[in-house]
């Protein structure tokens, strides 16, 4: 009886490892985009609204419109790309199975024993959760007490940002989608995170409007999504400040444009007749 149970458990583990490996391949196929430069537009944001839910509904064009025309050389990741990077963050799970260590490029995780907490990447935690192999423990920063403290600090101090995890938006969205039953008071937690996101985004826009001529800007405690939104405007603003504060550079640029060779095509009179070609 014991040997039969152990054999069934080993077969179940092998089946699960195969499914995890298949999930890894499909995960990389879905994100086989090379992290090239993508630009968020209003139409793209609307098309991704159902997939990214309310936590990804950033008004990403507002800052770009403040900067004028967008620079095609400035990288702007899509929400899916940022979420893909956030899936490597470690979270704590409580397995309900016994399983050997898993060896990945990013490291080794396991062995896993029932009811003994273990830390794994978020994507692996989601894969285990989907198959009913574990429960996910929400991070400590997702507690109502901590979120309330962060929200109060964001509202009181308009000149600084509170310290939050770099991928707090992406992590919370994935947990809301795949581990709803593991988050106590999920509706209150979701509401607090959305309020924090809105207050921080408003502070970003307000502070960037107060930019003055400077060679460097220091903004602390921004999240990955907020950095992605701010990057085009900040880079273009600093470039404009640098050019306007250096007249020599502006003169060199103007003279360089004037020195560009222009190819003139010979003018042919309208009444001119074509001469027949002479055969040799």
TrEMBL record:
CDD domains: GINS_A_psf2, GINS_B_Psf2. Residues 256-280 are annotated as: Disordered. Residues 259-280 have a biased composition (Low complexity). Residues 141-237 form the GINS subunit domain. Its main location: nucleus. One of its GO terms (cellular component) is GINS complex. InterPro entries: GINS_A, GINS_bundle-like_dom_sf, GINS_Psf2, PSF2_N. It is found in: Nucleus. Belongs to the GINS2/PSF2 family. This is Uncharacterized protein. It comes from Acer yangbiense.
């Amino acid at each position: 009886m014991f040997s039969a149970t152990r054999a069934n458990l080993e077969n179940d583990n092998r089946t699960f490892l195969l499914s995890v490996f298949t999930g890894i391949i499909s995960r990389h196929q879905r994100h086989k985009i090379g992290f090239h430069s993508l630009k968020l537009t209003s139409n793209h944001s609307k098309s991704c609204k159902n997939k990214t839910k309310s936590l990804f509904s950033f008004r990403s064009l507002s800052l770009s419109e403040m900067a004028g025309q967008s620079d095609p050389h400035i990288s702007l990741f899509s929400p899916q790309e940022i979420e893909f990077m956030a899936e490597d963050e470690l979270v704590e799970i409580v397995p309900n199975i016994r399983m050997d260590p898993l060896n990945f490029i990013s490291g080794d995780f396991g062995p896993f024993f029932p009811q003994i907490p273990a830390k794994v990447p978020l994507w692996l935690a989601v894969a285990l959760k989907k198959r009913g192999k574990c429960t996910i423990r929400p991070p400590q920063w997702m507690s109502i007490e901590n979120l309330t403290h962060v929200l109060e600090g964001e509202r009181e101090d308009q000149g600084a940002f509170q310290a939050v995890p770099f991928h707090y938006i992406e992590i919370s969205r994935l947990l809301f989608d795949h581990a709803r039953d593991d988050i106590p008071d999920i509706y209150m937690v979701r509401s607090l995170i959305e309020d924090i996101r809105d207050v921080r985004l408003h502070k970003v826009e307000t502070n960037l409007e107060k930019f003055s001529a400077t060679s460097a800007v220091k903004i602390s405690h921004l999240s990955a999504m907020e950095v992605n939104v701010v990057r085009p405007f900040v880079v273009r603003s600093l470039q404009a400040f640098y050019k306007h504060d250096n007249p020599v550079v502006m003169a060199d640029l103007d003279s360089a444009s004037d020195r560009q060779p222009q190819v003139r095509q010979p003018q042919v009179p309208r009444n001119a007749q074509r001469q027949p070609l002479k055969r040799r």
